Q: What sequence folds into this?
């Protein structure tokens, strides 16, 4: 019975892939993970569609076209390619902050998400190895006496962060003297409350500094942000096949050049494709 179900799933996947190529989607190269068991499909897409949480709060990973409202970026491309492999439709669920993606886990709102690997999150999410590496940096007032990353962690320094972000979680664990100020927008807090620094992903902070001459980007990084794909642990109940499949999928997407090309298409040349995972 199981063999028959698997055979049907394989046939469906092959048919779907062929249809995608006929429809004009480019083939994605050789695949070691294209054949998916019916059980893995059920675990990853239990509703019959793949619900992918897309974090629009990180411009490196996802973008929304102003005119059309269409979502794009490396996470969107990865979600659609995974759906193609699983032979299920993809539903993109947009969030404006990573913390809100994590909060939505409790309600079972998504099947896969693209978040930075953090211990708090890893307690509830089964992560792949990272597919993209980005930097966490500080922005400070142009006249600030703070010059290096080490200068920031001192008494009296208030650092604005986006609540629930990877850098919020990281700095919560690692800061010894400075104080975190959390909100919907760290950069807004920096200006409104005249704080000493704001932390964030390098690329959007660089854009913020370009349009705000009253601030400057501090050289160096305070953390490496490892962006990965994840699925809820509560659904897996100890089953290892779904996370193994996602791990292999992400590794193939890196090795084949898929991730690099997706970053290039979305105009994110400063983001680095993560190195192969150590097996």
A:
């Amino acid at each position: 019975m199981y063999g028959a179900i698997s055979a049907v799933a394989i046939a469906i996947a092959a048919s779907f892939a062929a249809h995608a190529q006929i429809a004009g989607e480019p083939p994605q190269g050789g695949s070691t993970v294209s054949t998916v068991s019916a059980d893995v499909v059920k675990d990853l897409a239990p509703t019959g569609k793949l619900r992918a949480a897309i974090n629009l709060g990180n411009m490196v990973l996802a973008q929304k076209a102003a005119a059309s409202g269409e979502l794009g970026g490396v996470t969107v491309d990865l979600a659609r390619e995974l759906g193609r492999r699983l032979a299920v439709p993809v539903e993109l669920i947009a969030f404006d902050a990573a913390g809100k993606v994590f909060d939505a886990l409790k309600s079972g709102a998504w099947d896969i998400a693209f978040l930075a690997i953090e211990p708090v999150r890893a307690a509830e999410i089964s992560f792949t190895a990272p597919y993209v590496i980005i930097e966490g940096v500080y922005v400070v007032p142009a006249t600030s006496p703070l010059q290096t990353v080490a200068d920031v962690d001192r008494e009296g320094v208030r650092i604005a962060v986006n609540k629930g972000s990877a850098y919020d979680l990281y700095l919560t664990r690692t800061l010894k003297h400075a104080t975190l100020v959390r909100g919907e927008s760290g950069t807004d807090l920096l200006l409104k409350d005249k704080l000493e620094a704001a932390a964030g992903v390098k690329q959007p902070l660089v854009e913020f500094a370009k349009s705000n001459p009253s601030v400057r980007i501090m050289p160096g990084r305070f953390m490496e942000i490892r962006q990965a794909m994840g699925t809820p642990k509560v659904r897996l109940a100890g089953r290892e096949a779904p996370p193994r499949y996602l791990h292999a999928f992400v590794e193939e997407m890196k090795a084949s050049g898929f991730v690099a090309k997706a970053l290039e298409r979305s105009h994110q040349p400063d983001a680095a494709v993560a190195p192969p995972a150590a097996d």
Q: What stands out?
A: Residues 1-32 have pLDDT under 50 and may be disordered. The two ends are 33 Å apart (CA to CA). Residues 135-223 form a domain with the D-Maltodextrin-Binding Protein; domain 2 fold (CATH 3.40.190.10).
